[in-house]
What does this fold into?
Amino acid sequence: MRRLLAILCCLSLLVFPVRARAAGKYVVLTFDDGPSGRYTSRLLDGLKERGARATFLLCGYRIKEYPAEAKRIVEEGHEVGNHGYSHKNMQQLSRREIAQEILDTQALLPEGCRVRFLRPPGGCCSDGVRQVAEARNLAILNWSVDPKDWAIQDAAAIEQAVVKNVTDGDVILLHDMSDSSVTAALRIIDQLSAQGYQFVTASELAALRGCIPKAGKIYSHFLPK
It folds into this structure.
């Protein structure tokens, strides 16, 4: 009996941290359109310093230009999603063209990189995009918080737009394509970390919330149940 109780006690210790972790506040930082050389490198340095993970939606033509940065993203524990090869509006493409955009990007990803999500450029989705995503076994990842960092180019304004609107389970849209966006992203992490938020990948948050993303389905957040 004592041995059984000891085993049960050990098992409870293993389970408890998972429950405690799942009960926390989580958000997903996503970065579109990269990698971009020095901006991505600076962002990765900042994420590493803060122990934060993110999801990067990469374009094939930029992976081709910056393969070392793409490799580093994967090696440092971040998630990679497919953002199409050329950043064309997929709503305006045929199913064959959409599939080619996805395949050309997949072919350039670092070895061993598993992709679970497609983000159509601009979030522009259609029946054709959903059907191709389903055929390629990819869920579609959109977002719930968009500070329009690509247009504002003001780190303080980007930071404020995110911090005042974010809630547990949100997916935040940013870009690793400018100093202002990277500066804002790191400030956002610092501010929200002080409020008890943790920064995980989209796949990690889906798992924490008991969600198994389905191919072809659109996800914009992973709210607590």
About this structure: The chain has a mean pLDDT of 91.
